[in-house]
Specification:
By secondary structure, this protein is an alpha/beta fold. The protein folds into 3 domains: 3-154 and 303-324, Glutamyl-tRNA reductase, N-terminal domain (Beta Polymerase, domain 2); 157-297, NAD(P)-binding Rossmann-like Domain (Rossmann fold), CATH 3.40.50.720; 328-402, no CATH class. The protein is built from 16 helices and 10 strands. The protein has a 6-stranded parallel beta sheet with strand order 7-6-5-8-9-10, sandwiched between helices. A 4-stranded antiparallel beta sheet has the order 2-3-1-4, sandwiched between helices. Helix 9 links the parallel strand 6 (199-203) and strand 7 (219-221). Helix 1 (15-32) crosses helix 2 (59-72), helix 3 packs across helix 5 and helix 4 (111-121) runs antiparallel to helix 5. The protein is elongated and about 105 Å long.
């Protein structure tokens, strides 16, 4: 059964469009998981991509169904610019993504963890084929990180955004930074801010700031002190990831808090769904750095390391596809083993009536050894035939020579 990927990333769409597509994909996935011919589904959603990896019987039918469900869920014209990959290309794409080659910042450090989280979150909906695919993608990511300097060079989106802040506004050492949000990404941002010497406070609209401060060297900001925190901060970093309007820092809220402040305030918004109002981009005294801005300033890493990573990915893709083709031989191998084992059982059955238990056990061991020896070459040849695309000839030979019928459903 083919594995295909359908999705949207920073290559095809801006942040707001990605937010819309992600919401549509979440709704469409609920129906897609139970669709006829779909055996598994994993959704990979990050700050700059949303992709569906599908294990299905019919490639083109599944694409049409997915498009229809996305349109029904509100994706609209975005389905026209979706990236659709099938079989080999889908495998290659996931490996590129997992290794950071397709990221907004090439070699970013978070993506492998996000791929692992996607596999864990979708474990109940993922087919064995998708499990193998994602596990191999993660293994390849680790190999690339160990064999190249890509991982060391590849910084996170947060690091790139903070680099941009320092380029525009000077070093962050000693400055007050207010972090909005305590999600999984908040830990990465906090570590980066502390490494740069910033004094970090954290606010959470869901009330998690105090708990976050217990495990990180930051100061929690309760709801009643948010106005003062906004007034005194020298950097605002928003990364809750929820992007709900109810928890969004608004233009009015921020300008009211800073009505007596002078100077330009850098505001970094790393949430796909936006944690601050996009109107801030046109607000005097505010320098808004969101994911779209980060994408335009992402650094280009050294070609040598990227080329080496691509070589390793090429090898991994070929190895994965070869192993998957070999699995096509499983029904043929099972049929041969069943045929031989039936003969062994029949012989043992006829022997049991006139031989002692000790004699029967000895003969059984001998027959098992002979059976395993006989099965070795057919098993190897079946796998080789599947890898070379000649499995049909192998199964035809089984039927003609031994009368073995292979159930390959």
């Amino acid at each position: 059964m083919p594995v295909l990927s359908i999705g949207l990333s920073h290559h095809q769409a801006a942040t707001d469009d990605l937010t819309l597509f992600t919401a549509s994909a979440e709704e469409a996935s609920a129906s897609l998981r139970t669709a006829h011919g779909v055996h598994g589904l994993i959704t990979l959603s990050t700050c700059n991509r949303c992709e569906l990896y599908i294990d299905a019987e019919n490639f083109h039918q599944t694409i049409r169904l997915t498009r229809d469900l996305l349109i029904k869920a509100g994706a609209g014209d975005l389905v026209q610019v979706m990236d659709v990959q099938g079989v080999r290309n889908a495998v290659r794409h996931l490996f590129d993504v997992s290794c950071g080659l397709d990221s907004m910042v090439v070699g970013e450090s978070e993506i492998a963890g996000q791929v692992r989280s996607a596999l864990q979150a979708n474990a109940q909906q993922a087919s064995p084929a998708l499990h193998r695919l994602f596990q191999m993608a993660l293994t390849t990511s680790k190999s690339v990180a160990n064999a190249t300097a890509l991982g060391a060079m590849g910084r996170s989106v947060a690091s790139t955004a903070l680099d941009l802040v320092e380029t525009r506004h000077g070093e962050l050492a000693g400055r007050q930074a207010l972090l909005v949000g305590t999600g999984a990404y908040a830990g990465v941002v906090t570590a980066d801010l502390l490494r740069r010497g910033a004094q970090v406070s954290v606010y959470s609209s869901s009330g998690r700031a105090a708990a976050f401060a217990q495990t990180h060297p930051v100061s929690p900001v309760p709801e009643e002190r948010l106005h003062d925190a906004l007034a005194g901060t020298q950097l605002l970093v928003a990364c809750s990831g929820r992007g709900r309007r109810a928890s969004r820092i608004t233009t009015r809220q921020l300008t009211a808090a800073r009505d007596r402040m002078t100077g330009l305030l850098p505001v970094v918004d790393l949430a796909l769904g936006r944690d601050v109002s996009p109107e801030l981009a046109a607000t005097p005294g505010i320098d808004l750095i969101d994911l779209d801005v980060v994408g335009k300033h992402a650094p280009t890493d050294h070609v040598v390391h990227i080329e080496r990573a691509r070589e390793l990915i090429d090898e991994a893709v070929e190895g994965y596809l070869k192993a998957e083709r070999a699995r096509l031989a499983d029904p043929a191998i099972l049929a041969v083993r069943t045929y031989v084992n039936q003969i062994v059982e029949e012989e043992l059955g006829s022997l049991a009536s006139h031989a002692s238990d000790e004699q029967t056990a000895a003969v059984q061991r001998s027959l098992r050894r002979v059976a395993n020896a006989l099965l070795h070459q057919p098993t190897v040849r079946a796998a080789e035939s599947a890898q070379n695309g000649d499995l049909g000839e192998f199964t035809s030979a089984l039927e003609k020579v031994f009368g073995i019928e292979v159930d390959d459903r």
